[in-house]
Specification:
There is one protein chain. Helices cover 52% and strands 14% of the residues. By secondary structure, the chain is α/β, with parallel strands linked by helices. It has two domains: 254 residues, 2-enoyl-CoA Hydratase, Chain A, domain 1 (Alpha-Beta Complex), CATH 3.90.226.10; 42 residues, no CATH class. Helix 3 runs antiparallel to helix 12, helix 4 packs antiparallel against helix 11 and helix 6 crosses helix 7. The protein is globular and about 70 Å long. 39% of the residues are buried.
Amino acid sequence: MTLSKDDALASMLGRPYRTIRLEWSPDLAMLRVRTCVRPIQCYSLAAMTEMQFLLDDVAGYPGVVRHLVMTSDVPHVFSFGGDLALFVLLVRAGDLESLKMYGRRCIDLAWWLENAAKRGIHTTVLVQGDALGGGLESALPFHKVIFERSVQAGYPEVLFNLFPGMGAWNFTIRKAGFAVANDMVLSGRLYTAEELQQRGLVDLVVNDGEGEAALEQAVRAVEPRLRGTLAALQAQRFAAPIAYESLIAIVDQWAETALTLTDRDLRLMERLVRAQARKAGGSDEGAVEEIKRIELGEAWQAVRVAQGLVGTPPGNP
């Protein structure tokens, strides 16, 4: 039996989610997804399962949702990306298949967003806090990407001998070109919102606190020309296609690379997990500061190696 739009919407909004909170704006047919993953704002398997349920609902009731919007409910953090604590457990257990399964869950979410225009849905993401690794990756498939000015984002995975494997190469290359993608992935450095806008990865940068107004304005601006915009976005995908098979091949490479991580690499990941937990607990410091400390330690190590010295680099506990 085909549900009415009201019944379909009630079914969609009635699921008892734990990691996402939904808001509905009837005048725009806009579904807003606010993420809040505890204890750490990352893409846990539980969070991705709930997100996939939601997206399946949206796809299953065509014509109900015209705008899909995502934001974070966690102050100062959009997403820390991959579930590093889980990665450490799986790598130590040598569990290649579970690593691949995790990566494919991520890819399936990105692929849904990649094809949202075909479903008659325009997507917008508002980033108001740190977006690291998979956090930045997950923003790039959205049609409209808005950052508040204080956001820092990047792909720090190379610091522990891994790489962002869930779409970073594909979506960064399409938006910013190969040279930018190469620099971002291989450097591991973090970027300001303005730097990402200059590189073409962010569409709009607004002052802190102005993101909500910018989000609504962006959605209202596209609404009168939604059909034409969605058609143009589909054409854009034809002009610069991303193949699902490529995403899967990269995920498999990521999983195989993860199993080569050393104990040192895993300890660095565990340091970042602890930093993420500090941020989740309200600390002024978190993963961004920890990444900078790791970078500093590596820089001092390189200096000492060049000088033929040994020992612990200054400031690297």
